[in-house]
User: Fold this.
Amino acid sequence: MPLIQVFMHREWSAEDGLSALETMGQHLQGTVATGQGRLHVPGITRRDNPFPVWLQTELGRNGFVYNAINLAYQKEVPDEAAGERFCQWFDSVFRVHYAPYPKYNATIQQVHVRVMMDAEETQHRETY
Assistant:
């Protein structure tokens, strides 16, 4: 079943990115991957909800559930067309509604939506 994902684009500064890579490199040196196939690097792996409370409320009211692994709100839809209709509505109505308000517009510009067709494979995983 297709899945709609709503996620926040958060940019790191060049310094933040280099620091993260350095930290990751330090933690990876001399380590062996676990048989579970996942690796959590302290200070790099993020599970915090980046969405402001007002947007969390709106998404929750519309049936979206936050997935802390993917840092995204998710909702199953019956078919790809339904997902595409939501994406179009989000961009042409929801985003446009908040655009005139500086308090909300900065956040809305960072929000992205997409439809995933292979949702069964990824939505309940611990990593992706």
About this structure: The radius of gyration is 17 Å. The chain has a mean pLDDT of 79. The CA atoms of residues 28 and 104 lie 39 Å apart.
